[in-house]
């Protein structure tokens, strides 16, 4: 009995938290009550029917199921519903023990085995718990006698007399199997749940469950490795016996571990109390500081109040003296009654001065003290932010750092971060950001929780700088904030387009990718054929390509990347009225006499160049950015050559008639000029020799998933 009572933990259903009743074995080898399986499947049916209402959560397998809902199952069973009506084809069942979705197959509940061994152990436990409660005979006339044996074939209990009557000697019933009194009657032969008329006689080593010969011949176990039931019985019993013997032989080690765990429990209790005490002391110190500050502030307000009240009260008394027959006026009236001139003059001179002062104060009335206490307003905004960040800091939790190379600012902001360690011990990250504004005195951080290591933000303003920081959380413990990173958004909304593969596209010299987001110029065989007949100079022309979408108004921005090996690339904008001239009357741009960035100081050459060009372009190539030679540009050619940024941007403002060229990584303007925006404006590109241009792809949620995978 003591051994039976010690295993109660193994006999509790994980769903209803009570002793098993008709337990079934799930494919994951965990056990659950038969009624609990039905109830959980009913709850899932209701959740699908209600569209995932809150009622479905109340019947979760992780929460104890109410016994009142069992009546509904009985009513459905009595109404004649088919056995497999609860289990649709390939039913998924959430196992309460391992928290995984288990596939019950086509037969659902009907394909599960009943765990008779566990059922017998539960019954023995119940009998040990009942102790003195006897099992009565099922066939005695009232009053029934206490039973002495139970027949497993008849599924009934008998006293000695009734057993002799119902199992007479020499009959078939005399051969029935009988045991001690019990209420747990299980079938003597285990039948296959898929083929109900077949007895299980084999064991599938793949699925780890008993099967019949039909399951092996043409069922779901046809290609599985099986063994005979006797062999499986012998093998599993030997393994289980050896494992039990090993555990029993290690009893002293188990007891030592238990003793160690008991010490750890006590140590945890002591350490938690110590941590609570230290935390309380820390907060008490803050309380003391706040109480001192509070007392000092209240004393200052009270002192100022008393001084102001005293001044105002004095002023009230002075003005009351100006009333008739009262104070100064009453005294002056009495002085006027004096008839002796010498005495009157002696007193009236000083009195006249006081009367004049009172008259002047009456003409320009001002209160002696202010009634407002604006100077005593306590600003606690910064302290509130600091207290809001108050948390447990752990040296073991790594500080995440924002990766500026993987982060991008385009149509949306992609903020990516990483930890220096190999393992990610954080449960969640908190990303905070705010717009940099010199006019705002206090900073308000916007906060978002992220499960991965990147976040896509879409609520940022154009042409603005933002500060970002991130910290890691593991439970209630958090890491310090990362270093703040400042990034700038594009100067205008992002304009989306693709390369046009129809208008003027030269497929002999240019090659587009299938998505039309990249174009490449190859100095290959066609270029050699074109240059073969030339003997003096070089008059090779540029190959132009434009965007497939035009801009009529507003301010727009787009970005692209130029490969480092590119020899010559020109980028800019072209009006729709000059597209035909661009493709059919292309001037020589390689001859030094017509190179805008050739370094020649002849103003006539620049004027000729500007007037002859159908579009506004800047020159890139050989890892350099060339600022055009304009009157405002430096005359020294070397000062007009900048390193080529990894990403370039173009900002077209049709309303102002200006186009700017940006370092898209830092959103810094490199060059800006006027442009005629009288018609539709198209992005324009020109390539020569070995060169390639890739349009910047828009930031989407997939970018976040990609960075999280990395």
SS class: alpha+beta
Number of strands: 34
**Can you summarize the main beta sheet?**
7 strands, antiparallel
Number of helices: 16
Tell me the count of domains: 4
Computed Rg = 46 Å
Subunit arrangement of the protein = single chain
Q: Low-confidence parts lasting 5 or more residues at pLDDT below 50?
A: 51-88, 587-612
Based on CA inertia axes, which overall geometry fits?
A: flat
CATH-derived architecture of the largest domain: Sandwich
- CATH C-level class of the largest domain: Mainly Beta
How would you sum up this structure, described in words?
The chain is α+β, with helices and mostly antiparallel strands and 710 residues long. It has four domains: 90 residues, Zinc/RING finger domain, C3HC4 (zinc finger) (Herpes Virus-1), CATH 3.30.40.10; 157 residues, no CATH class; 88 residues, Immunoglobulin-like, CATH 2.60.40.10; 163 residues, Jelly Rolls, CATH 2.60.120.920. Helices cover 32% and strands 21% of the residues. The chain has 16 helices and 34 strands. β22 and β23 form a beta hairpin. α10 packs antiparallel against α11. The longest helix is centred in the middle third of the chain and has 70 residues. The two termini are 57 Å apart. About 9% of the residues have low confidence.
Defining traits:
single chain, alpha+beta, Herpes Virus-1, Immunoglobulin-like, 6-stranded mixed β-sheet, flat
Task: Map the helices and strands.
Elements: H1 2-5, E1 23-25, E2 31-33, H2 34-49, H3 54-58, H4 70-78, E3 92-94, E4 101-103, E5 113-114, H5 116-130, E6 149-151, E7 156-158, H6 160-166, E8 178-179, E9 202-204, E10 209-211, H7 213-218, E11 226-228, H8 229-249, H9 251-320, H10 327-335, H11 341-363, H12 381-388, E12 392-393, E13 401-402, E14 408-409, E15 413-418, E16 428-435, E17 446-450, E18 454-457, E19 465-474, E20 477-478, E21 485-488, E22 510-512, E23 518-521, H13 525-532, E24 543-546, E25 555-562, E26 568-575, H14 579-584, H15 603-612, E27 616-621, E28 624-626, E29 641-643, E30 648-653, E31 658-663, E32 668-674, E33 681-688, E34 691-695, H16 701-709
Parallel strand pairs: 12-20
Antiparallel strand pairs: 1-2, 1-5, 3-4, 6-7, 6-8, 9-10, 9-11, 13-15, 14-15, 15-18, 16-17, 16-19, 19-20, 19-21, 22-23, 23-34, 24-33, 25-30, 25-34, 26-27, 26-33, 27-28, 28-29, 30-31, 31-32
Helix pairs in contact: 10-11
């Amino acid at each position: 009995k003591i051994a039976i009572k010690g295993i109660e933990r193994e006999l509790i259903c994980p769903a209803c938290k009570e002793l098993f009743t008709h337990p079934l074995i799930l494919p994951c080898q965990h056990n659950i009550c038969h009624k609990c399986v039905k109830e959980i499947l009913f709850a899932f049916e209701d959740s699908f029917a209600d569209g995932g209402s809150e009622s479905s959560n109340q019947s979760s397998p992780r929460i104890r199921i109410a016994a009142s809902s069992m009546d509904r199952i009985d009513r459905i069973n009595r109404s004649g519903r088919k056995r497999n009506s609860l289990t649709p084809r390939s039913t998924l069942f959430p196992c309460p023990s391992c928290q995984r979705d288990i596939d019950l197959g086509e037969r659902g509940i009907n394909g599960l085995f009943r765990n008779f061994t566990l059922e017998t152990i539960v019954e023995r436990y119940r009998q040990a718990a009942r102790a003195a409660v006897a099992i009565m005979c099922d066939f005695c006339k009232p009053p029934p006698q206490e039973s002495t044996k139970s027949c497993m074939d008849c599924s009934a209990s008998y006293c000695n007399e009734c057993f002799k009557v119902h199992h007479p000697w020499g009959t078939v019933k005399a051969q029935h199997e009988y045991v001690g009194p019990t209420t747990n009657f299980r079938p003597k032969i285990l039948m296959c749940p898929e083929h109900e008329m077949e007895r299980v006689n084999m064991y599938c080593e793949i699925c780890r469950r008993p099967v019949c010969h039909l399951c092996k011949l043409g069922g779901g176990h046809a290609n599985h490795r099986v063994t005979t039931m006797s062999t499986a019985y012998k093998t599993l019993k030997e393994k289980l016996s050896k494992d039990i013997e090993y555990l029993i032989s290690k009893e002293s080690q188990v007891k030592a571990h238990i003793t160690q765990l008991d010490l750890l429990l006590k140590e945890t209790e002591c350490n938690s109390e110590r941590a609570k005490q230290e935390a309380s002391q820390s907060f008490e110190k803050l309380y003391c500081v706040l109480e001192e500050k509070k007392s000092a502030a209240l004393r200052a307000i009270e002192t100022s109040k008393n001084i102001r009240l005293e001044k105002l009260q004095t002023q009230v008394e002075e003005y009351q003296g100006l009333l008739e027959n009262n104070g100064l006026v009453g005294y002056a009236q009495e002085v006027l009654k004096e008839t002796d001139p010498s005495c009157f003059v002696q007193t009236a001179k000083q009195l006249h001065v006081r009367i004049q002062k009172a008259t002047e104060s009456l003409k320009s009335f001002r209160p002696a003290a202010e009634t407002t206490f604006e100077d005593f307003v306590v600003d606690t905004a910064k302290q509130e932010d600091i207290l809001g960040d108050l948390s447990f800091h752990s040296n073991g939790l790594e500080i995440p750092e924002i990766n500026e190379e993987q982060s991008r600012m385009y149509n949306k902001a992609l903020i990516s971060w990483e930890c220096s360690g190999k393992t990610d011990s954080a449960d969640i990250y908190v990303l905070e950001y705010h717009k940099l504004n010199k006019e705002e005195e206090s900073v308000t951080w916007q906060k978002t929780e992220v499960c991965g290591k990147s976040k896509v933000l879409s609520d940022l303003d154009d042409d603005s700088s933002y500060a970002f920081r991130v910290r890691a959380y593991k439970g209630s413990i958090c890491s310090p904030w990362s270093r703040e990173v400042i990034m700038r958004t594009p100067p205008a909304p992002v304009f989306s387009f693709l390369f046009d593969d129809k208008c003027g596209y030269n497929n002999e010299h240019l090659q587009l990718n299938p998505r039309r987001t990249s174009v490449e110029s190859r100095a290959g065989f066609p270029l050699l054929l074109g240059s073969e007949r030339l003997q003096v100079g070089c008059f090779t022309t540029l190959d132009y390509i434009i965007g497939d979408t035009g801009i009529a108004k507003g301010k727009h921005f787009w970005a692209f990347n130029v490969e480092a090996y590119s020899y010559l690339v020109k980028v800019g904008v072209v009006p729709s009225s000059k597209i035909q001239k661009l493709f059919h009357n292309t001037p020589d741009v390689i001859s030094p006499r017509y190179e805008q960035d050739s370094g020649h100081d002849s103003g006539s050459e620049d004027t000729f160049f500007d007037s002859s060009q159908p579009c506004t372009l800047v020159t890139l190539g050989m890892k350099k950015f060339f600022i055009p030679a304009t009157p405002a540009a430096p005359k020294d050619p070397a000062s007009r050559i900048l390193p080529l940024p990894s990403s370039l941007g173009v900002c077209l403002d049709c309303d102002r008639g200006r186009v700017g060229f940006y370092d898209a990584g830092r959103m810094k303007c490199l060059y800006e000029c006027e442009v005629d925006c009288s018609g539709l404006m198209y992005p324009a590109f020109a390539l020569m020799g070995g060169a390639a241009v890739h349009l910047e792809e828009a930031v989407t949620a997939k970018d976040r998933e990609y960075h999280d995978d990395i």
